[in-house]
Design brief:
Elements lengths: L1 H10 L8 E5 L10 E4 L16 E5 L2 E6 L5 E5 L7 E25 L2 E8 L8 E10 L7 E9 L7 E8 L2 E6 L2 E8 L41 E20 L13 H12 L2
Antiparallel strand pairs: 1-13, 2-5, 3-4, 4-13, 5-13, 6-7, 6-10, 6-13, 7-8, 8-9, 10-11, 11-12
Length: about 270
């Protein structure tokens, strides 16, 4: 614990002075501020009429999450006023029932979501996954659009990894363990959109094979510029911890930022050299 505090103080100067920091490390023992949102048609296009809720509980100061099938389940926090911000957290996959994913989400408003994931897709080589950017309505598969995908090594079972998503105006960036894997990419707008045809149940696009089709109609939704943040998973069990959300519109909560578990070993090595 002392190491976390020392490392946090060292890193505090990296945060913008004007920005608020919302910290959740699950030590408080409750999830009162969180809400679940379920993707009723997941990214593998397997029909689930009425998917059951996931299991979310705090165990030893960490969020223990279980998604029992291939529907993606999000746990969300925040409100519609949050605008440009960064969300990051640690995640440790524990067990997978089959093809699965880990999700980091932003600008959640009702069932509209902007999200990135690291997930398994059929016929991929062993230990290979795909990092994917998507946006749309979690409750209507025909409004879910994928605009960018990159091959990436799977997250290791039993090992902490760090995910980070930044949204600023119309631009998104996604990092895994400190490496930028997607971005900068443009968020959807009412003029044009890079998408694939969900109605035909095509596979998500491969890098360099994305089509620009007709203008996107968002049915009165005015853009993905504000909304809550979230974390989630499908078809697996995982632990989450050290959620840090920063931005000018973010309220301060929880004191000093926590050093991500995935970076503790690196930070400890640096501290010992002083």
């Amino acid at each position: 614990m002392k190491l976390v505090v020392i490392a946090s103080i060292i890193l505090l100067s990296s945060f913008c002075a004007r920005a608020g920091t919302y910290l959740v490390n699950f030590d408080e023992g409750n999830l009162d501020a969180w809400q679940e949102l379920i993707l009723t048609q997941d990214f593998l296009f397997l029909d689930v009429d009425d998917p059951p809720p996931g299991s979310w509980e705090i165990v030893n100061g960490e969020l223990h999450a279980v998604s029992p099938d291939e529907s993606t389940r999000l746990l969300t926090i925040g409100d519609h006023t949050w605008r440009d911000y960064t969300i990051e957290f640690d995640v440790k996959p524990l067990e997978k029932q089959g093809p699965s994913n880990i999700v980091i989400a932003a600008r959640i408003k009702n069932s509209w979501v902007v999200w990135c994931l690291i997930g398994d897709l059929p016929n991929f080589r062993e230990n290979a996954s795909e990092a994917l950017f998507a946006a749309g309505n979690f409750h209507d598969r025909n409004t879910i659009f994928y605009t960018h995908a990159e091959l990436h090594r799977s997250l290791k079972l039993g090992k902490w990894s760090a995910l980070k998503l930044a949204v600023e105006e119309n631009t998104l960036n996604f990092w895994i363990n400190g490496k930028l894997v997607i971005g900068p990419v443009q968020l959807p707008n009412r003029k044009t959109f890079e998408r694939f045809d969900a109605a035909k149940k095509e596979h998500p696009p491969k890098p360099g094979n994305i089509k620009i089709v007709h203008p996107l109609q968002l049915d009165g939704f005015h853009g993905f510029l504000t909304g809550a943040a979230g974390l989630g998973l499908s078809n697996q069990t995982a632990r989450f911890d050290n959620v840090v959300i920063t931005g000018d519109s973010i309220p301060n909560s929880g004191g000093l930022p926590v050093m991500p578990k995935a970076k503790l070993a690196t930070a400890w090595g640096s501290l010992k050299r002083f």
